[in-house]
Design a protein that fits this description.
Elements (H helix, E strand, L loop, with lengths): L1 H14 L7 E7 L4 E7 L18 E7 L5 E7 L8 E2 L3 E10 L2 E10 L4 E3 L4 H13 L2 E8 L3 E8 L3 H8 L5
Antiparallel strand pairs: 1-2, 2-3, 3-4, 4-8, 5-6, 6-7, 6-9, 9-10
């Protein structure tokens, strides 16, 4: 009995990874012959309730990539209606604040009309900043200004991002 318990404990120690908090998935486009990798946080919810049903407020921080090509960074929401931002050609541009253990960081993001994600790729340096913050921190707090509900922040667990990115998104820019 003692051996079974010891073997079970060793099994769980060996099979637990520091990057178990973030998930990895693969999407293959048979038509184009491409493969995309997605590294995403667990579902996050706002710090205060919103005026619409809670299940509609689910959100994930995601980094996608095509190996030997490029990566992209975005936050996906089940439902999204942000306030403010400057209007562009088919999108709104927002100034987003990210909080880490070291302080606050300003980045720009876009939200295409009728889409449910906020994209950090508009300015390449902002995409790199968010990726770097994910590499250097176990958690990011990102604040969004929701229409009719005001500012809410979401806590995204980024533990293990670096390992998953290095394994699945090599040579991307």
């Amino acid at each position: 009995m003692k051996k079974i318990i010891i073997v079970t404990i060793i099994y769980f120690i060996l099979n637990s990874h520091s990057f178990s908090e973030m998930k990895h998935s693969v999407s293959k486009d048979e038509f184009k012959g491409t493969t995309s990798h997605y590294i995403m946080s667990n579902t996050a919810y706002p710090n205060k309730p919103l005026s619409f049903p809670y299940k509609d407020t689910e959100s994930n921080l995601v980094v996608g990539c095509k190996v030997d090509s490029h990566y992209w960074v975005y936050v996906y929401f089940n439902k999204l209606n942000l306030l403010g931002g400057s209007i562009g050609d088919g999108y709104y541009r927002h100034s987003i604040e990210i909080k880490t253990k070291d302080g606050f960081h300003q980045v720009n993001a876009t939200k295409d009309f009728s889409k449910n994600f906020v994209d950090f790729d508009f300015i390449p340096q902002d995409k790199k900043t968010v990726k770097k913050l994910m590499e250097e921190n176990d958690e990011l707090w990102i604040q969004f200004n929701h229409y009719q509900d005001g500012e809410r922040f979401y806590k995204y667990d980024t533990r293990g991002f670096t390992e998953l990115f290095e394994k699945n998104c090599k040579n991307t820019n």
